[in-house]
Amino acid sequence: MAFLRTGAVLAAAGLAAVGVSACDSDSSARCLTVPDAAVEQIERGAPGGTLDVTKSAAVRNDVAGTVLVELRVQGSGGERTGAWSLSNLEAPGPVFSVDEVAAGLTHWPMLPYATGAELHADLDKCLG
């Protein structure tokens, strides 16, 4: 199943799909904006090389020295949210799937260690 990225369509409509994170006041200090380069790096692992990303958020994993990125993706089966681990957001290197949704959307290997419930809770708050 191929996914299409709608960032250009939403941008033309004056809406931002990628590169903006919606954070509540409790988590805003931890929320990071996900640049297009990071989304594109994750998308390279998707069938067809694109995902229909409707929302994005990220938090820094200070323990591992990485960044966790969560993408909300629209597909034929509905909306799903997956998480990936990147070395950084500006020049993303290796990509790892953090959960089963991410592994199902892309071919990136599963992260070989747990990322912690607190980081996932922060990501969920950032994504809104």
Would you mind describing this structure in some detail?
Residues 1-22 form the signal peptide. This is Lipoprotein. Keywords: Signal. The protein has 128 residues and is of the alpha+beta class. It has one domain (7-127). It is 24% helix and 24% strand. It contains four helices and four strands. The chain has helices spanning 7-12, 36-43, 100-105, 117-127; strands at 53-61, 66-75, 78-86, 95-97. It has a four-stranded antiparallel sheet. The chain is globular, with a radius of gyration of 13 Å. Residues 1-25 have low confidence and may be disordered.
Summarize the topology.
Blueprint: H1 7-12, H2 36-43, E1 53-61, E2 66-75, E3 78-86, E4 95-97, H3 100-105, H4 117-127
| Radius of gyration, in angstroms, nearest whole number | 13 Å
Order of helices and strands: HHEEEEHH
Tell me the strand order in the biggest sheet. Answer: 1-2-3-4
| Beta fraction | 15-25%
Q: Please mark out the parts with pLDDT under 50 across 5 or more consecutive residues, or reply none.
A: 1-25
Domains counted in the coordinates: how many? 1
Which secondary-structure class do the elements indicate? alpha+beta
> Percent range for helical residues?
10-25%
Judging from the principal axes of the Cα atoms, what is the shape? globular
In DSSP terms (H or I, runs of 4 or more residues), the helix count works out at: 4
- What is the mean pLDDT? 76
Number of strands: 4
Distance between the termini: 26 Å
Biggest beta-sheet profile: 4 strands, antiparallel
Signal peptide: 1-22
Protein name: Lipoprotein
Organism: Speluncibacter jeojiensis
Keywords: Signal
